[in-house]
Amino acid sequence: MNFDFSDDQKQLRDQARKFLTEKCSPKAVRVVLDGKAPYDKELWKGLAEMGFLGVAIPEEFGGAGAGHLELCVIAEEMGRANAPVPFSSTVYLAAEALLIAGSDAQKKKWLPAIASGEAIGTLALFEGKGNPSPKAIKLTAANGVLNGVKKPVADGAIADFAVVAARTGSSGRDGDISLFLVDLKAGGVEVKSLTNLDPTRGQAEIAFTNCKAEPLGTAGEGWSILTQVLDRAAVLCAFEQVGGSDRALEMGRDYALDRIAFGRQIGSFQAVKHMLADMYVSATLARSNSYYGAWALSTNAAELPEAAAAARISATQAFQHCAKNNIQVHGGMGFTWEFDCHMYYRRANAMALGLGSLTYWEDQLIDRMRKKNAA
Amino acid sequence: MNFDDTPQEAEFRATARAWIGANAPKQYEDDLRKSSLGRTVLKNGNILEVAKAWQKKKADAGWACLHWPKEYGGRGSSPIERVIWQQEEGPFGQLSRMFIIGHGMCGPTMMAFAREEHKRTYLPPLASGEKVWCQLFSEPAGGSDVAGLRTRAEKDGDDWIINGQKIWTSGAHYSDYGILLTRTDPTVPKHKGLTMFFLDMKSPGVEVRPIKQASGASDFNEVYFTNVRIPDHQRLGEVGDGWNVSLTTLMNERSAIGAAVSTGFPELFEYCSSLMLDDGPAIEDRAVRSKLANWAVKASGLKYTSMRAISALSKGERPGPENSIGKLVAGSMIQDVATYALDLQGASGVISGEDAELAGRFQAMLLRAPGTRVEGGTDEIMRNIIAERVLGLPGDIRVDKDVPFNKIPTKGRG
Ligand SMILES: Cc1cc2nc3c(=O)[nH]c(=O)nc-3n(C[C@H](O)[C@H](O)[C@H](O)COP(=O)(O)OP(=O)(O)OC[C@H]3O[C@@H](n4cnc5c(N)ncnc54)[C@H](O)[C@@H]3O)c2cc1C
User: Fold this and answer.
1) Measured distance between the N- and C-terminal CA atoms of chain B, rounded to whole angstroms
2) How far is B302 from A288, CA to CA, in rounded Å?
3) Is 0.90 exceeded by the ipTM?
4) CA of B105 to the centre of ligand 1 (A)
5) Cβ <8 Å between A281 and B380
6) Rounded CA separation B173/B177 (Å)
7) Interchain CB distance below 8 Å, B293 and A267
8) Is B397 in Cβ contact with A313 (below 8 Å)?
9) What is the pLDDT of residues A12-30, one digit of tens each?
């Protein structure tokens, strides 16, 4: 047993952190936050050049072929830096869907484009309120064309292509759902940007009207593929959340050492110390659960569904907890636009919803634990 | 990152499993499996005797105190082997609770500070469970503030004469030896005037009085010392260096790595899986599921945190203060878990003991849990440790730091 990243992986982490510290300063994040650009194009290009976008994509499809543990390491750094790029939608959702279900031709077309930073992808799953469920999918696919509306779609306004979940049957079961690949620059697609909690990562509404689409994976297996994609994304997002938690904790700690009140560093007040200690505890539990998820993901272990749900819940809670208490430690300053606290608060709360809510994942976890216990 | 056993680990596991399968006291397995924190009831056996017999059997076959050096009664195993052993020992591991303080704290302190001849004399019977040890630190005036203790040790020729009182001493009523922290100089600041010893609990002048706990059980005691003599060669560390010696003990206490802390979660999950509520199985109830999921990720988070610590340890890194989180998280969790299990039982949750649901398993847990949040450092002290030693925040303001001990105020009010 060895429950840690290897030295090479840690080196990759250092490299990613160094790169992001230089190229993704809070000032750079604010360009996107303030609406001056939809995402940081320079950074995206840089990430491609560093090989980070294709780190888990096999070499034959233009990636670095390193693996998912390496991707987890990078995800953590993306979260720390609060990077304003469509990383999660492109790399965790679209690329993973292609890796799991894409035909050779589809992989050849899109994966190298992802790795080189030329194509941004996303997953179009939700249709308004509610959590992932076959029943909630109303958008139809018939004779190779899609009709319906998806919202919210992460990074939908800047994406080049989308993996779209559509209804292809009427049995009322999982088998009704199939996946499609859609070139969003083609006809029959109408995209509208939506204001959202976290402007550093956009959300959109996409209407498909007689839009041409090619099947992704076997018809009727859409739901089972989606479940796998969401589980993988849950682990990868958990690493972003862990990175964000750590950064929020660090900001709070640094401020507590700097700020003086009543003639003392506020970090010497136990109420503040204990708040930070509790942030450390939740960030640590989340990290440990995420490591387990990373192991399950990288080995495609039978434990993955349970591990993914646990990582997801734990990391969501930790990031929300650390981000909100970071503001508290900062007092009034924490509530200003000028301080960076709210960027993490926004990201934490947006990420908490992106793959379905906490309640949804809690439900998933218990189901999966029950199945395991029954087996 | 790899969860699978290496070939060596797999071999170790197979050997351990085979030995346990052939030797464990199986007649108690069911009782041990069903009991939980705060309540180990053996229907046909005295727990202390059964525990001692199992420990002795393990020691004779080389399975006691796995990580201790062989010459002191251990096996010289790696931290990972220790975890594998614990996994394989399963419910029988509960029998070693009797020896936690001796094995986890007194033994390591002896190893670090006792003379070689003492180590060879005292450690093997401690490892084999033939002799039980206790830790005599806390006093009415010194719990969280251990260095505030008042038990005096005065030099008399080659001996020290001890007078004073300890409190909350777990297991003192069946202990053979103890490690004892005393004050040897009240005229210097409190941390500087302490000295550590080990002693025979049967020495003349030692009186042990069991205390009845909030839970109703009596696992800890008051211990009185009246002119108790301890020879100087039983001193651990230098005169006046007792604080440093005790830090070794406390570090070991807090990083008793791999010693999985009870969270109550497996018990609750199992309970909810079979429990029927008014409108169906508990496990299908939305609210129940949400609670369970929250605790599930805490329990797994703790488990994998300790695995990360073990991995670090096996690479030669030293255990650090970050290990304080286990008890901090598990302590309040087990309390909440027990409260919730009783809530699910409705009005009948009030019944405890044999007549209660599951023979009062969760009621016992509820009544024991407050102690977990206090023993070995309270929640507040654990948070201080994390904040100061892990996060680097300033220490608490200490008004007594540079004051001679005999000038420190002793009462809050009146
Ligand atoms: C079941 C059990 C078994 C035990 N076994 C042993 C044993 O075998 N040997 C032994 O020596 N001791 C033992 N103890 C004693 C234990 O170590 C002490 O009870 C514990 O350290 C707390 O000290 P105290 O009881 O004096 O509480 P106090 O120190 O008086 O604490 C009272 C309250 O004040 C808070 N407080 C105190 N100082 C601070 C601070 N600096 N910052 C914030 N809050 C603070 C505490 O958190 C607590 O809430 C045992 C205790 C229990 C409950």
Assistant:
1) 59
2) 8
3) yes
4) 17
5) no
6) 11
7) no
8) no
9) 999 999 999 999 999 999 9
**Burial (CB count within 10 angstroms: exposed 0-12, middle 13-18, buried 19+), residue A226:** buried
What pLDDT, on a 0 to 100 scale, did the predictor assign at position B329? 95
Confidence (pLDDT) at B321: 79
Q: How confident is the model at residue B258 (pLDDT cuts 50, 70, 90)?
A: very low
Residue nearest to atom 32 of ligand 1 (CA): B144
**If you write DSSP's letter for every residue of B356-374 in order, what string do you get?**
SGGGGHHHHHHHHHHHHTT
CB contact under 8 A, A276 and B391: yes
Residue nearest to atom 31 of ligand 1 (CA): B144
In the numeric block, the tokens 């839009």 are attached to A211
Structure tokens belonging to residue A297: 């993901």
Rounded to 10 degrees, the C-alpha dihedral B237/B238/B240/B245 comes to -20
* Whole-number Å distance between alpha carbons of A311 and B198: 46
- The answer to whether the predicted template modeling score (pTM) of the entire model surpasses 0.90 is yes
Estimate to the nearest angstrom the gap between the alpha carbon of A79 and the chain centroid: 9
| One-letter-per-residue 3-state SS of A232-286 | HHHHHHHHHHHHHHHHHHHHHHHHHHHCEECCEEHHHCHHHHHHHHHHHHHHHHH
Residues 6+ apart with CB under 8 A from B37: B262, B264, B334, B364, B365, B368, B369, B372
Calculate how far, in angstroms, residue B373's C-alpha sits from the geometric centre of ligand 1: 9
Residue A212 tokens read as 């041409």
- Partners of A182 in the β-ladder: A162
Name the minimum distance, in Å, from the CA of A57 to any CA of chain B. Answer: 19
First to last CA, chain A: 24
Q: What is d(CA A78, CA A43) in angstroms, rounded to the nearest whole number?
A: 11
A47–chain B nearest CA distance, Å: 25
**Cis status, amide bond into A38, omega within 30 of 0:** no
Q: List the residue whose alpha carbon is closest to atom 26 of ligand 1.
A: B143
Element of type H or E holding B118:
helix B116-127
State how far residue B383 is from chain A, nearest Cα, in angstroms: 6
CA–CA separation, A359 vs A252, rounded Å?
28
The per-residue pLDDT for A283 is: 98
Inter-chain Cβ pairs, chain A and chain B, closer than 8 A: 160
Q: What is the pLDDT of residues A107-147, one digit of tens each?
A: 999 999 999 999 999 999 999 999 999 999 999 999 999 99
